[in-house]
Write a structure and sequence with these properties.
This protein has 15 helices and no strands. By secondary structure, it is mainly α. The chain has a domain at 91-290: MetI-like fold. Helix 9 (194-231) crosses helix 11.
Length: 343
């Protein structure tokens, strides 16, 4: 297993280097002066120009420049935002928690509703129930996320006025940021209106979380259904039925834990799509996450924001994909058997 983990870490390092190489090449094709694209400094002084040339090795060949670019980016120097004149690392630290909070809530919703519906679709003898659930998943998978977000905003935000359609928290509430997760920060706050702020934050996250949860929800339902159907034909399930165990006990104690293994794998495969959906959702609902921040940087031609946002999102997707693969291998007996056989 140790050798396998080392191979996964080598894969992460190699993929990250390729990503940085792509960003380095793209930076040289930006329609702007190279020093500005690298640092975000509009009008550098003579001392700043000399420092930039030295840090990024702009006087050397392409290989030397790439090494200098790597040294700066790996040291945490992502430049400053051309718009706000703030370091990109500080802005990323501000917007990333909001994206993680939205993604976690959406994932919890997808699993909480998707797994029971997947079990129901696989175990129900009623054809109408089966077809209805699969029709819901097919519809959810096919609906464009931007249309769904705008429709939910129009119905529940504008026409009914039940839920807010933008932002993360009402501006009337001043909650000190501790973790960066507004739902947690409102609970930790000792303010007199902390309870009201928590309810308001919960209302703000409902529509974007539901919109973002639709795609993983459909994947969870279909994966759970397929896995349960396949597992219920296994010999150990037949043996449990022969011992007189109740069907619900068999499903929950024996079938479901094994069915969650392919569900985990499928969720790992869709991380890229999930991230792209999250960016669209953040823009629609003005959610202050990395997706909306990156799109705003693209509109404003803030080249350091573009590089920093793409680098952060891509590295997170790569890291989480590898971690899910490692977790899948660790909990899947068949994968461990193949792994040890290969070693």
């Amino acid at each position: 297993m140790t050798r396998y983990l080392l191979r996964r870490m080598n894969l992460f390092v190699a993929t990250s280097l390729v990503l940085l190489a792509v960003l380095f090449i793209a930076t040289h094709h930006f329609p702007v002066e190279k020093r500005f694209a690298l640092t975000g400094i509009h009008a550098p002084t003579a001392e700043q120009i000399a420092s930039i040339n030295q840090d990024y090795r702009l006087d050397s060949n392409h290989l030397g420049q790439f090494i200098g670019y790597l040294q700066q980016r790996l040291s945490g120097n992502l430049g400053i935002s051309a718009t706000s004149q703030q370091p990109i690392t500080d802005e990323l630290a501000t917007v990333l928690p909001a994206s993680f909070e939205l993604a976690i809530v959406a994932a919890v919703l997808a699993l909480f509703f998707g797994i029971p519906l997947g079990i129901l679709a696989s175990m129900s003898k009623n054809k109408i129930t089966q077809h209805t659930i699969m029709l819901i998943t097919l519809t959810g998978y096919s609906i464009p996320v931007f249309w769904l977000g705008l429709t939910l905003s129009l119905w529940f935000g504008v026409q009914l006025g039940w839920l807010p359609i933008s932002g993360q928290l009402n501006l009337l509430y001043e909650i000190e940021s501790v973790t960066g997760f507004v739902l947690i920060d409102t609970l930790l706050s000792d303010s007199l209106y902390a309870d009201s702020a928590f309810i308001d934050a919960l209302h703000h996250i409902i529509l974007p979380a539901i919109t973002l949860a639709v795609l993983p929800f459909t994947v969870v339902v279909r994966s759970t259904r397929s896995a349960i159907i396949a597992i219920m034909d296994k010999t150990y399930i037949k043996a449990a039925e022969a011992r007189g165990l109740h069907t619900s006990h068999i499903v929950l104690r024996h079938a479901l834990p094994n069915a969650l293994i392919p569900v985990l794998k499928n969720l790992g495969l869709m991380l890229g799509s999930f991230a792209s959906y999250a960016m669209v959702v953040e823009v629609i609902f003005s959610w202050p996450g990395v997706g909306a921040w990156l799109v705003s940087g693209i509109y404003q031609r803030d080249y350091t924001v573009i590089q920093g946002g793409v680098l952060a999102v891509a590295l997170i997707i790569i890291f989480l994909s590898i971690m899910i693969e490692v977790l899948h291998t660790a909990i899947n007996p068949l994968s461990r058997k193949e792994l040890y056989a290969a070693n």
